[in-house]
Amino acid sequence: MHNEAQNEVFRYSYSATQQEEIRRIREKYTPAREDKLEQLRRLDGSVARKASTAALSAGITGALLLGLGMSCCTVWAGVRFVPGVVFGLAGIALVAAAHPLYRRILRREREKIAPEILRLTEELMK
What is the 3-state secondary structure (H, E, C) of the chain? Predict the structure, then answer.
């Protein structure tokens, strides 16, 4: 009789809702696995995003400088005319440089990331 009591094992199983809740909580703490196509899309998008950010920053800064220069020339015509022209020309130069800056950064980033993109595309095409 005593031997029978020692062999008894207590087992407890979770319900389906508890199992689902445990799975959801566990997913929050496990690192997300990214498949190769998602990785390819992310890498390709990061190239254009860097170039766009730089070009937009240059364009917006240039437009603000141009506006500052125009304000200096029109509001303070006698006092701040020369600095207004300088600010305006600097703004025009920045706005004009935004697109070439975009193309240059895009080309540089594509060259930098090309080996990884080509490796991923080769793996996906097999």
Answer: CHHHHHHCCCCCCCCHHHHHHHHHHHHHHCCCCCCHHHHHHHHHHHHHHHHHHHHHHHHHHHHHHHHHHHHHHHHCCCCCHHHHHHHHHHHHHHHHHHHHHHHHHHHHHHHHHHHHHHHHHHHHHC
pTM of the model: 0.65
pLDDT in tens, 31-64: 767 677 888 888 888 889 999 999 999 999 999 9
